[in-house]
Structure formats: structure tokens, C-alpha cells
Amino acid sequence: MPVGSPAVGDFDRVWVNANLCTMADGLGVVRDGAVASKGGRIAWVGPREALPDTDAAMTDCDGAWLFPGLVDCHTHLVFGGNRAGEFQRRLAGATYEEIAREGGGILSTVRATRAADEETLVAAALPRLDGLLAEGVTTVEVKSGYGLEFEAERRMLRAARALGRARKVSVTTSFLGAHAVPPEYKGRQGEYAALVAGMIAPLAAEGLVDAVDAFCERIAFTPEETEAVFAAARAQGLPVKLHADQLSDLGGAALAARFGALSADHLEHASAEGLAAMAAAGTVAVLLPGATYFIREERHPDIAAMRAAGTRMAIATDMNPGSSPARSLLLMLNMACTLYRMTVEEALLGVTRHSAAALGMADRGALAPGLRCDLALFRVGAPEELCYWIGGNPCAGRVVAGEDA
Ligand code: NIG
Ligand code: FE
């Protein structure tokens, strides 16, 4: 090639006339930028004026803001029924924990989920999934944990996989058999934890499990029981995650760090030491402001301690029928900023790069060459508007692996 002639890009598609938040280094703003894809991956990102010559199909973004596709890294999207009635009871004074202790709460969703077949579970979950996708989500994690017996847990995980086939979205699954103690094991909690540990290998053999999660809490599993489940996950080579220190401090954050967990989630009651241990282990803090808000938890995660320790923070919906019926990841951005006083940059990293890290997905979460070409286009004047508006949906387009979705 003669010196000085423009490089010619071998691209499938190019997006131009967009402002970019690459999220590769902070917000990574590029005004009047361009993104090019090849084979479903990002091949080039930068200012439009530097885009190599190409005859690839060109999409004009009309000045909108292009982000990496959003990643909702903690949901319980698949479940039967709902708990609006329980919500009404809480309005009359009952607490989330009281209802759980009476056999309501998670166990009432277990009854409805056990009674539903796979098709029913998928049909109920699809509108919830569609709400997330409409706002620019391209990757979503889905947990089991309302079956609490082998076949029902399996059905939930199969339903989650079916969601990934029904829509253009990456679905990643977490097996949460250790979510609550089923009624038939009341008083034999350790036995149930051992049973859960034993479910991991057969479910993983069917390709249904991407990670293993547990609920370590005084209304759920002890740290010792959690460790038994994690040991079984480790034996299968599966990464772990933990619902940690949501209602009380049982040392869940440090436990998760000890196991090199991908993430520890909730963390309202986590200690500064636990959060620092997470930073050292590379365990991401998944913050769930919808749950803080909906169960009116007065204590908030210690953002200052996480900043001081360098703990990466992600934000997710926790979409579930009991503690966070949140069907909007954009609303969670506003809540994270308003309730937790997170910055716009922290919040936006929390639904992109850091939430991808919370799923162990190094191939997404930013606009950078080599990563998957998952994009979300927003008709806003500035990135901070994604955190600012309450309601309304500025998402104007989604791209999954280089294709319009
Ligand atoms: O993430 N913390 C435990 N599990 C869910 C709540 C599930 C439910 O109440 O149904 C959560 O908040
Ligand atoms: Fe959860």
C-alpha cells in the first residue's frame, strides 16, 4: 500500500453519526464516533474522521448515543405467580422477614413455580424479559431457586435456556438450589444443603448451569452450608456467586472472596473488611437498589468502603416477585445514584463492564476491538440522562453479535 493512502477496513457493518460511551476507560466518550463489526465482533472503534475507508453497510445513528449492550447480571426472571398480595400485607405492617418465617415469601413462589410446567414458566417470563430488552439489555443472567427439588430446579433452568432461544439475547444461568429450605426439609436444613450440592453435577452435565449461587442469610443458609454447596460447584469447575449480607452480616462477602466468587450480591450489611477481601479476590459487588427500596432496607451498601478498597461495583434489577419486582434496568441506574449516591460513571460501568465481569464474561461490556458487537443505542443528549430520567425509555435500537435485534 502506498504511504499515506487510507487503510481500507474489512468490515461487515459500520455505525456512524453516533456519540460513543465505550466504557473502556471510564465513560470513554467519543463524540462523532464510529463502530465497525466483522463476524459479530467489534473490529474498529474511534472517531468517525479516523474510520478506515470501507464499503460495508452503514447505519446512520442520527446523533444518538451508542453504548455496549447492557448486562443485567442478577435476575430471578423465571417464576410462577407473583406476590402482589404479600406486598399489600407489607403495606399493612408485616415485614419481608416475618412473611418468610411464616412460610410465605420465597416459599409461596416455590409453590406456584412447582405447579407450573416449562412452557408456562417461559410464557410468564417473556414479557418481563422483553421489558429489559426494550431498554437495551443484550445479556441477562437468570437464576433458578424457586423449585427447590431436582426436577423443578431443572425445569427453571431449561426455561431460562428457552428464553435465550426465543429472543436475541445472551442468557446465562445460575443454579440457586440453596435459595430457601423447602417445607419438606424443615428442621433438616443441612440435609437439604447436601442434596443441593448433589444436584450440581447432573444439572451441569445437561449444560444447564453456568454458575452456582446461594443465599447465605439467617432466613436461608449458614456459611457452613454455603461452603458445602460452593465446594461441590468447585468440584465441577463452576464459578460461584453469593446472595451475601443482605439482611444481616454473616460474613458472606469474605466467604465469597475466599472462594474467588465472580460476585457477591446485595451487601447492605457487609463489613468494610469483607468488601476489601472482595476487591483483593476480584469479586464484583452486585448492588440491587430495587431490593433495598422495595423491602425498605434502611441500611445501604457501603459505597465509600468499596471505593476505598477498589471493589468493582455492578448494578442489576434482581427482578423477582418478592424483594424486587423491577422490570427496568434503567430505573435501577437512577436508584443507584439517588439511594446510594453512586456517580453516573460508576452506575454506567455497573450495567456494562462491571456487570459483564460479575458474570465472568470478558468478551463484552465495552466497545473495544475483539469484543462481541453487542450495542445499545439511546436517544439522549448526554450519557447522564440514562441515570436521570425516571421512566420513559430512550432506547432506540439494540444490536446483538453484529445483528439488529
Ligand atoms: O435476591 N435474597 C434472596 N433472594 C431474592 C428474593 C427472592 C424472593 O423474595 O422471592 C433476592 O432478593
Ligand atoms: Fe436475588
What labels would you give this structure?
single chain; 405 residues; alpha/beta; eight-stranded mixed beta sheet; eight-stranded parallel beta sheet; globular; binds fe (iii) ion; Metal-dep_hydrolase_composite; iron; cytoplasm; zinc; Amidohydro-rel
Overview of this protein structure:
- The chain is an alpha/beta fold and 405 residues long.
- Helices cover 36% and strands 21% of the residues.
- The chain contains 15 helices and 16 strands.
- The strands form 2 sheets. Strands 1, 2, 3, 4, 5, 14, 15 and 16 form an 8-stranded mixed beta sheet that branches.
- A hairpin with a 2-residue loop joins strand 2 and strand 3.
- Helix 4 packs across helix 5 (150-166) and helix 8 (252-258) packs parallel to helix 9 (272-281).
- It is globular.
- The site of N-(iminomethyl)-L-glutamic acid (NIG) has 14 residues, from helix 3.
- N-formimidoyl-L-glutamate binds at residues 146, 320, 322.
- Its EC number is 3.5.2.7.
- Its cofactor is Zn(2+); Fe(3+).
